[in-house]
Amino acid sequence: MLTLFRALSRCPLWFLHGTGAVLGWLTYWASPTYRRRFADNVRQAGIPVADARPAIAAAGRMVAELPFLWLRPAAEPIRPSLSWEGEGLIIEALRGGRGVVFLTPHMGSFEVTAQAVAQRYAAEFGPITVLYRPARKAALRAVMDESRARPGVATAPATLAGVRLMIRALRRGEAVGLLPDQVPPEGMGVWVPFFGQPAYTMTLAARLVQQTGAVPLLIWGERLPRGAGYTVRVSALGETLPAVDPTQAESAAVINRAMERLIRQCPQQYLWGYNRYKTPRSAD
Q1: 186 vs 70, which has greater pLDDT?
Q2: Cα 284 to Cα 271: distance, rounded to the nearest angstrom
Q3: Are 122 and 128 in contact (CB under 8 A)?
Q4: CB count, 10 Å around CB of 133?
Q5: FRET label pair with 83: which of 77, 110, 119, 173, CA 20 to 30 Å apart?
Q6: Which of the four pLDDT bands, split at 50, 70 and 90, describes residue 142?
Q7: Inter-residue contact 205 to 178 (CB < 8 Å)
């Protein structure tokens, strides 16, 4: 698989996105479970079907672009285009020395956001530390391990040791990134509404902010049409997290509402097939 990924990483982005769109639709029609979950999640969110339908192709593009994002030469910038919206929020936070907690939903190219931040700010403000869960399949794990070694990007496993790495990074005034709409292991979240239905939601995102005084920012990478590149969009959380929250339920609900607002901005690129309402797996 690593050899295949290396070969695909040399393909132009327009080709990968075009191929991915076809694969996205093939996967959709081949899997009744996927189609049912996609429709259920769209309906639960109250999103018009016509607005969500382009997300079928977008899911395929997300997979097809991974070789380009993971295995292109480390020193090569993201091409053909990378633009920014709202980056003043990042500069203000990092220059204030408070550290930044970047929150990214399963929307657009969430892989590109960490690389874009590293490419833009790591030289001056230090690396961005990204929370990740190692792949279960050995072949994919080898690809992921190689891809993570990129300039300005540090990684933290989804373990207690990884959480400590992120806290230390924030206390140094650096940035960290995670996907707060990812279902955490049992015991690491709380049940709070997401688009009106209880969803097991991580408490880590809010705790990182509360324990370090870091600035929470929303960030996502919009995939531009016809492989033209990406626009990284940055915005404020929109609500203030409670300073003290023993159960973390209120804090998790604040972050879920922020994710909902962001997803409604571009339902065409949200991963509606993600099993957001599943029962969490055991932490063992």
Answers
A1: 186
A2: 27
A3: yes
A4: 14
A5: 173
A6: low
A7: yes
Residue with the two structure tokens 């940055």: 234
The pLDDT tens digits for 33-57 are 999 999 999 999 999 999 999 999 9
Question: Could you tell me how many residues make up the chain?
Answer: 284
Q: Which residue has the tokens 């990074």?
A: 169
- Give 173's pLDDT tier (boundaries 50, 70, 90): very high
Residue 194 DSSP SS3: strand
Residue 96 has pLDDT above 60, yes or no: yes
**β-strand partners of 220:** 233
H-helix or E-strand spanning residue 258:
helix 249-265
Instruction: Show contacts of 247-252: CB within 8 Å, 24+ apart.
Output: 247/190, 248/190, 248/203, 248/206, 248/207, 249/190, 249/192, 251/203, 251/206, 251/207, 251/210, 252/189, 252/190, 252/192, 252/201, 252/202, 252/203, 252/205, 252/206
Q: Report the run of H or E that residue 50 belongs to, with start and end.
A: helix 49-52
**Residue of 141, 145, 59, 65 lying closest to 106 (CA atoms):** 59
Q: Say yes or no to pLDDT of 138 above 70.
A: no
Positive or negative, the Cα torsion across 178, 183, 189, 192?
positive
Cis bond before residue 80 (omega within 30° of 0) = yes
Average model confidence (pLDDT) across the chain: 91
Coil, strand or helix at 103: strand
Contact between residue 60 and residue 25 where contact means Cβ atoms under 8 Å apart: yes
Q: Which two tokens stand for residue 60?
A: 């395929």
Residue 14 has pLDDT above 60, yes or no: yes
- CA 166, CA 170: separation in Å to the nearest integer? 6
Q: Tell me if 254 sits within 8 A of 263, measured CB to CB.
A: no
Model confidence at 132, pLDDT cuts 50, 70, 90, reads confident
Angle at 31 between CA 29 and CA 35, to 5 degrees: 75
> Distance between CA 268 and CA 270 in Å, rounded?
6
